[in-house]
Amino acid sequence: MPDRKEHGTVEHRVCGAHIELHPAHLAALRVIPGDLPEAGPGELHGALRCALEADHSGRHYGLARSLPMDSPGEVWACWSGGRQPSGAISLPDCAALNPADPDEACVLFNEHAGEHSWALADPEEDALRSQLGLF
Questions:
Q1: How much is the pTM?
Q2: What are the residue boundaries of the structural domains of the chain, listed by start?
Q3: What is the superkingdom listed in this entry's lineage (predicted)?
C-alpha cells in the first residue's frame, strides 16, 4: 500500500519481493536460443527483486538478464511466492518517458502493472546507495 508523505502526497513503493535463482536457471539464462550471444559479465542477475509497484496482483517480475542496448527489451523472470520461476520471458521495454524529465525512461517492461519506475520509491535501493556513497 502506498505510504503518506509529510505533505499529504502518496508515495508509491516498489514491491521488492526477493528470490535467488537456482544455478540451473542461471545456466539456462546464459544461453538463450535465437540470435543472442552468450551472456557476458554483468548481464545475468541471480538475486532478483520484484520491480513492480507494491501490492500488485499476480506474479512478481524481476530482471533476470540484461540484453544488448540494441535489443528491444530485457529478459524477466516471474514467480509466485518464494517458488523458483518456471521460466523467463523476453519482454519489450516500456516506452513511457517521465513527463518531468523526458530523458528518463521507465526501466520496466511494456504494459507492466502499476506506476512507472520513476514514480516508485525503493527504500532498500536508497539505503544501499547511501551506504556506498552514491547519493
A1: 0.83
A2: 12-131
A3: Bacteria
